[in-house]
Amino acid sequence: MAPAGGLVLWLHGSGQTGEESRAQVGPYLSAPELASVRSSFPTAPTAPIPCYGGEVITAWFGIPEVPITAKSVRDEKEVLRAVERVHEMLDREVAAGTSPSKIFVCGLSQGGALALATVLLYPKTLGGCVVFSGSLPLSKSFAERVPTEARKTPVVWFHGMADGVVLFEAGHAGCAFLQELGVPCEFKAYPTLGHTLVDEELQYFQQWIKDRLSQGTCVPATSLPDKERCLKQPKIFSKFIEKKKEIYDLDDNSLIVPFLFSLAASLRRRAPPSQLVPTPMAAARSRSFVLWLHGLGDSGPANEPIRTFFSAAEFRLTKWAFPSAPDSPVSCNHGAVMPSWFDIHELPISSGSPQHEIGVLKAVENVHAVIDKEVADGIHPENIFVCGFSQGGALTLASVLLYPKTLGGGAVFSGWVPFGSSITERISPKARKVDSIVEHFRLQLCGHME
């Protein structure tokens, strides 16, 4: 008799076990709609892993280096051996009567990479593939070996933009490869998520499995990151800091904390004494305004918890603004539509990266319009601070340098100069007087290194 329902095969990450994954993922497969779906959580064999100094851990195949990038070296022979083992599991299921259309291969990290390779090289169309924080473990030369039926298997790919183990660029490169093959792929980007599983991903995963079982394997054309899901993430800034410290091994003297305290100090120097109540005549001079520009793929509301760091009395007259960038296709992310202040042509960004100056200048005009409105409402320019992270930091720098008046300051966190030398001629003498928290970073870091 053929087994009822379907099968979810979960492949764990390196160093984990099947039982550990079952404890975390299993509850999401216990919904009434999935009662007929069985689950399997095999454990990988143990082996010495090069990237961990030869430490013997559970692993499906060797990992030459960490972090994993789009250009990382791959141990393809071991990957193919692992794929064969998983194919044997699938073949047994199919031989026992399980319909391939009801078989889902899923995995986290290295397990996600193996899940992807498994479905791409399987001769039949499966119910789906779910990749969490994974990468493509095979070179593009394997495209010729992907069967026509395998190209019909739908894929949903979850990846955090703060992933320090399997970099976000590796995830997007894998998505681009699937697009080239014509594989239907839904890519879910999470701006502050590191290399871990979170409830929101697993809730979506659960619903995705339900939908595939009820609708078959037919899915819409490739879907790219959607803003709505990003906006619903429970992103608390303090947790974001702790995650960054964990990923990049930062201590309290590292980049993030000096950034926050430098910004606080800059505002405090310009704030009225806490014991004084400004008179109406002095109100305009006393008030301050902070404009925060988020990074690529993020949103303004998701960054609002930052203001909780400035609850002291000195900031009682500070006004905050967290605008969201418009949705637009981004070249470096293979045309993915996401919140972006301007186009970015390549990742990683270097001093020689091409700049989309027309887009930058248009974004600068929009920021200047926000600043002009605050000035018109009575806030003194020297009480206005523009701050930003990553792409928002780049826009921050351009905005303060090209503004005709001296602003209170500019805080650039992990940003870059988004224009060429020809634009520097347009920087006014007053704009050159703007305090830069980037300099505070440099001084604090140099002092820390000494």
TrEMBL record:
One of its GO terms (molecular function) is carboxylic ester hydrolase activity. Residues 3-210, 285-434 form the Phospholipase/carboxylesterase/thioesterase domain. It holds the Pfam family Abhydrolase_2. It comes from the Eukaryota. This is Phospholipase/carboxylesterase/thioesterase domain-containing protein. GO terms for cellular component: cytoplasm. InterPro entries: LYPA1-2/EST-like, PLipase/COase/thioEstase.
